Amino acid sequence: MSIPNSDTIVRFRGDTRPVPRIVQDNDNVATDISGWSFSLTVNKLENPGAGDAAEFTIVGTITDAVNGKVEFQPSVGEAALVPAIYWYDIQAVDSASLIETLAKGMWDQRQDVTK
């Protein structure tokens, strides 16, 4: 399983619009994610150690299980992250309780102009 086109997520400070993703199999066919759970974790470090705290973790909301659609909506506090380059990954726990990291990449938090 994977989430294609997930290398870099660009966000502007203060934006709370969800980050949508589609889970696909190795043939790029949407995977039925009924009964799954998801988390997206953002960290200052690309390869954090066990003692390195994450900036935040967003629990995914399945929006269309049969078509593999999940989204991650940052809270107002999470959207206020200081502009910088961070790193994220997305993990899934499937209906058999198996854990898989589906994506890992850069979280580019940018400063917007409007306050």
List the helices and strands and how they pair.
Layout: E1 8-12, E2 19-22, E3 37-43, E4 56-59, E5 61-64, E6 69-72, H1 76-79, E7 84-93, E8 99-110
Parallel strand pairs: 1-8
Antiparallel strand pairs: 2-6, 3-4, 3-7, 5-6, 7-8
Using the alpha-carbon principal axes, give the shape. Answer: globular
* Regions with little confidence, pLDDT below 50 for 5+ residues: none
Secondary-structure-derived class: mainly beta
Mean pLDDT: 94
Q: What's the story with the biggest beta sheet? A: 5 strands, mixed
Q: Write the element-wise H/E pattern from the N-terminal end onward.
A: EEEEEEHEE
CATH architecture designation: Sandwich
How many DSSP H or I helices? 1
**Which assembly state applies to the chains in this document?**
single chain
Q: Report how far the terminal alpha carbons are from each other.
A: 39 Å
The CATH topology assignment is Immunoglobulin-like
* Fraction of residues in β-strands: 35-45%
What's the CATH first level? Mainly Beta
Whole-number total of structural domains: 1
> What is the percent of helical residues?
under 10%
Rg over CA atoms, rounded to whole Å, is 14 Å
**How many β-strands, per DSSP?**
8
Task: Compose a concise summary of this entry.
With 115 residues, the chain is mostly beta strands. The protein is 3% helix and 43% strand.
Q: What does this entry look like structurally?
A:
With 115 residues, this protein is mainly beta. The chain has a single domain, classed as Immunoglobulin-like. 3% of the residues lie in helices and 43% in strands. The chain has 1 helix and 8 strands, in the order ββββββαββ. It has one helix at 76-79, and strands at 8-12, 19-22, 37-43, 56-59, 61-64, 69-72, 84-93, 99-110. The strands form 2 sheets. A 5-stranded mixed β-sheet has the order 1-8-7-3-4, with no helix packed on it. Strands 2-6-5 form a 3-stranded antiparallel β-sheet, with no helix packed on it. Strand 5 and strand 6 (69-72) form a beta hairpin. It is globular.
